[in-house]
Amino acid sequence: MKTEVELLSRRISDNFVKAFTTYHLLQDGDRVLVGLSGGKDSLCLLEMMVRRARIRHPEFSVEAIHVRMDNVDYEASTDYLQTFCRDLEVRLHVVHTRFEPSDSKPACFLCSWNRRKQMFNLAQELGCNKIALGHHKDDLIYTALMNLTFQGRFSTMPAILHMRRMPLSIIRPLCFVDESDIARYAQLRDYRPQVKRCPHEDLTNRHRMTRLLADIEAINPEARYSIWKAILHDDIMIQY
Q: What would the pLDDT profile of 125-151 be if each residue is shown by its tens digit?
């Protein structure tokens, strides 16, 4: 009989494969830079990417980047990330950066923008043509709610986004994976949690959407599945 971690690993892997076959996320010759924040989602993503790369179907290479924002008080253990990547035989790039506070733009926006900038710069420096991020199915649902509430449009983070101004695509291979599966898998695999959580984490609109969805599910327990069905039906998972 298979263990719980084996069953979870298989379910996550099956959904990972479903995502990249459905949206053609990976092709032969791809060079992929994985964003490794140190959270459970990015650790799981890197593990699944490496596992798939070893099959060589398709044949692609993987490197990882960890961006440290020096003026935000949160932290992942660099030693742990280096050990995690070394065990997977993945090269890890640790990049330091910071942003200047602004009265017109929230800290979360500036932090995210600067992180992406560092990822784009390193990807092009290394000759990578794709950047993989660890957003899961729940992230896409929260984003759809957030965009509907604040932008007046039904959209979400796509499974693949082709950049217009640079030869890069952003892919989200965990887009079919439930967060609850990743959380349990991380627990069973003894992923080390971040040393310090971001102090702004509970103040974002995305965090408010988690509470909103919980309220909606109290009215309709099937609401999460209905929103996901709408996302798939509206064909908004690919953007150019």
A: 999 999 999 999 999 999 999 999 999
* CATH class as words, domain 4-239: alpha beta
Q: Flag whether the pTM goes above 0.85.
A: yes
Domain coordinates of the chain in residue numbers?
4-239
Q: What's the pLDDT score for residue 202?
A: 61
Name the token pair of 49.
């990417």
Task: Report the distance separating Cα 213 and Cα 47, nearest Å.
Answer: 29
Q: How far apart are CA 95 and CA 195, in angstroms?
A: 18
What would the pLDDT profile of 155-213 be if each residue is shown by its tens digit? 999 999 999 989 999 999 999 999 999 999 999 999 987 765 665 566 678 889 999 99
